[in-house]
Amino acid sequence: MTTGHTAPPGVIDLLGLLAYAELGSFFRLADDAGLAPSLRSKGQLAALAATEQAHYQALHDRLAELGVDPEEAMEPFVAPLDLWHERTEPQSWLESLVKTYVGDGIAGDFYRKVAELADEETRILVEGVMAETGRAEFVAETVRAALEEDPKLAGRLSLWARRLVGEALSQAQAVAVSRPELATLLAGKAPEAREGSDAGIGDLAAVSRMFASLTDRHAGRLKAMGLAE
Amino acid sequence: MTTGHTAPPGVIDLLGLLAYAELGSFFRLADDAGLAPSLRSKGQLAALAATEQAHYQALHDRLAELGVDPEEAMEPFVAPLDLWHERTEPQSWLESLVKTYVGDGIAGDFYRKVAELADEETRILVEGVMAETGRAEFVAETVRAALEEDPKLAGRLSLWARRLVGEALSQAQAVAVSRPELATLLAGKAPEAREGSDAGIGDLAAVSRMFASLTDRHAGRLKAMGLAE
Known about the structure:
Radius of gyration of chain A: 18 Å
Organism (chains A, B): Nocardiopsis aegyptia
Number of domains of chain A: 1
Oligomer: homodimer
Domain Ferritin-like (chains A, B): 10-188
Distance between the termini of chain A: 40 Å
CATH topology of chain A: Ferritin
CATH architecture of chain A: Up-down Bundle
InterPro entries (chains A, B): Ferritin-like, Ferritin-like_SF, Ferritin_actino
CATH class of chain A: Mainly Alpha
Strand content of chain A: under 5%
Shape of chain A: globular
Protein name (chains A, B): Ferritin-like domain-containing protein
Largest interface: A-B, 26 and 26 residues
């Protein structure tokens, strides 16, 4: 871990995770351009992607301000997040929108955790990012409108959303095992209280509870799009 | 042509052309992520792409303010610009950077033309876009540094730059024939003075002269990157 910063290691991990999540989402969203049904929706997709880039930049710069090499902080999360994207490649415009909404929602849960735990300046940054909710609403509305027009889509998109969160939990579980600081932090303990360098059984159980509450919030997001669990 | 706006038709054409050029560059740049040699350069690439998106958005919104359907204004330029991108797909990170620099340079020439001809508010917008030159400098510096490290690259990259501008001129020629208002405007005549609905021989000759001066400026940009004509 790079020295010279004041944030607890778990917070640096969370910021690195979120930074790469935003950068990865940026490239994947741009990749989905071929699925956009019109020039207008291509433009909307570019705007969504640019928002992810702005968030990436803010997190990247904050990590640098904290004295951390941003690329070093992102590195442990590159493989699991790339793997998530590879395993959940959208086959249609609606699948791409649902993925954006679900992915942003999960990121939001992690942002809230950072806001709870980080220093004042980082907290303000994170709250600024979370305040940009307009785009998520546009996505949910577009999906709802498509479902009203063709209710048969609901079953397939619900399955898709379940697969998205399932693959996310699978990657998150792997990350929790390999990053004990992060597991400790998500379990709600102060990092100083942690003993040894591996996540204990108690930590992993707490992480599972954290995942359970994440799944609950996922259900709320599905409902917002007009989808069932 | 949509009515209700005050800008001359050629200016609407130029704004539509530039809007789609920015949107197309955004998606193509993001597509080049796989060529980036590091996580850091991926981040820089995302920042370049986000700048293109911001320019697209500004032009898109200005077209709407002028009472024009932005997608309708962009439509005539989708095929030629997509064709240019298809015919000039970078095979390396340096080729991608050279393409960005050359493409932005050509766009800059068109922006200057808009600034000359458009209404006050559009001119201010366009000058704001053109003021963002920091990124172009970063690209030119990266290419220069790579050439200093490996001078053998110069020949191949110079050929690449020549192909980029050759393909651009070929597409521009096709656009000039199919869009007489644009040809008239680029030839420097007032649109009111134009007779008939096709570009005359005089217009096309003037367009060729405009292309010649564009090629001159291209040579200057090559030099800035350390490349020969």
